[in-house]
Structures are given as structure tokens and as C-alpha cells.
Amino acid sequence: MYEFFDEDLDQLELAQGALLLNKAVNPETQDHWAEQELIRLFNEAEFALVNEQGEQQKFESFLRLFFHEWGFSGDKDAYFSSENAFIDKVLERRKGIPVSLGAIFLFLARKFGFPVEGVSFPTQFLIKVNWFEQAPVYINPFNGEYVGVQTLSAWLIGHDGPLAKLKSEHLESADNPMVIGKWLALLKSALLREERYTLALKCTDLALTFVPDDPYEIRDRGFIYQQLDCHQVAASDYQYFIDQCPDDPASELLKSQVNAMNETSVIVH
Fold it and tell me: Quick one: which of 75, 89, 165, 175 has the fewest CB in 10 Å?
């Protein structure tokens, strides 16, 4: 777990940072295999594209190779599965979500020297391509298709409401720590949905190293401890949230939870 924080995430490719995150959450992550698979895919792509002329033509061929010949695609059947947030599983299944597919695409594209960056758009992760003296273009890593300003505006309105306006800051390049932080929250949600509480607890512990006093993260940790039958610890976490966020609607519900757990603790002892 500690190796994850010893690394400078901005000095790594996003896929490498994600692998560190995956390993910190689940020690069974096949990180070494995933690293070798990424290199294998690059070598295969390099051979496939050796005769391509011109950087942009080469990029278009790589785009087709990644999404059509290799078959990387968004997981439409089980979008919220935790497998879609583990890089080794995405490489194995060739299915994922925008951020995991985008991280793999970025890793390979940058090894070719293509001018690509990640964008943490409000609705999903995007790939930005910055050709010299051209306006940036954007790719949806869920399906490998280009998306224009009108589509992005429609996505934003669907996310934030009819008054939402597309702004330049929505399309700024994302730094790795910010993306990894969102990835961690996404992974925790997936693991909670699957009732894999021990791994979800690792996600919460990692998040709390970034923001040690975050009451919402501590509330989530309390819920996980409650599912693991660690009621006294859960009650302590819930009480912290209640004290810090007394006006939050969840506090009233948690008060009854804390009372019930305290009463159970008294009966047992």
C-alpha cells in the first residue's frame, strides 16, 4: 500500500499509476503481467504500423487497431463492475470504462509520441489530441469515436441541467493525481455494490491518507465496518460524521444507527 504513495504519480503514465492503485487495493492484481502485456501490445502495434506514412495517418491506424482489431470497448453489459476499474482485468477482457480504456490508450499512444492527453470531463474521461496548429479534437475512449462540441455540450446539459454551458476549463488536461482520486472513488463504489467490503475498506483507508478528516469518507468507512460486524468502530465513525455534519439529512438516520449499536454493545458486555 505504501508504495502507491511513494511514487510521484505525475512522473508515471496514468495506466502505471492506476496499476499501483489497483495493487494497493487488491494484492492479487496481476501488475507484472499487465506491465508486460502493455509492452507486448506496443510491440504488436509498432509492427502493424511500420509502413504508415505521416503522423496523423499513423494515429488513425492506431485508433482502428486499438478499438476494432484488438477489440477494446466499453463494457455495456456490466458498466459498474469493479473489473472495469482494474487495469489487468481490462487488458485481459478487452472491456472497460472510459477512464480505464483511456489510460491504456494513452500509455500506448504516448509511446508512439502522439500528442495525446487525458481530460477529466464532468461526464466521463476523454482523450484530447493536439495536432500542431490545429484545434484540439476529442475521442470517447468508450467506443473510439470522435466527439464534437455539440455532443460534449449535450452531455454537460444532461449532467448539470439545461443552463449548463461548455467552458474551456471542462476540456483542460487532467493531472494524474486528480484522475487517480476519482478512480479510487469509482472503485470503492463498485466494490461496495458487489459487497466486497474488505477491499472497499482498503479504498477508504487510501482515500483518508489524502483527506484524513473527510467526514463523508469516514461515514463510508463506518458503513463498511458495520457490514464487517465491527459495530463499535462503525458507531465511532458515524458519531464523527454526526458531529461534523449535523445539518446533513443522513445525520438523523445515523443517530438511530449509533443508538442501536451502542445498545447492542451494552447487552453483549
Answer: 165
Sign for the CA dihedral angle at 50, 56, 57, 60 comes to positive
pLDDT (tens digit, 9 = 90+) per residue, 126-170?
A: 999 999 999 999 999 999 999 999 999 999 999 999 999 999 999
Entry field: residues in the chain: 269
- Owner of C-alpha cell 506491465: 35
| Domains (range + CATH), the chain | 2-171 (3.10.620), 211-268 (no CATH)
What does the DSSP assignment read for 196-235? -HHHHHHHHHHHHHHSTT-HHHHHHHHHHHHHTT-HHHHH
Residues 97, 64: Cα–Cα separation, whole Å = 18
| Burial (0-12, 13-18, 19+ Cβ within 10 Å), 167 | exposed
- E strands within the chain? 73-74, 95-96, 116-120, 125-129, 137-140, 145-147
Q: Are 254 and 241 spatial neighbours (Cβ–Cβ below 8 Å)?
A: yes
C-alpha cell at 75: 463494457
Q: What pTM did the predictor assign?
A: 0.92
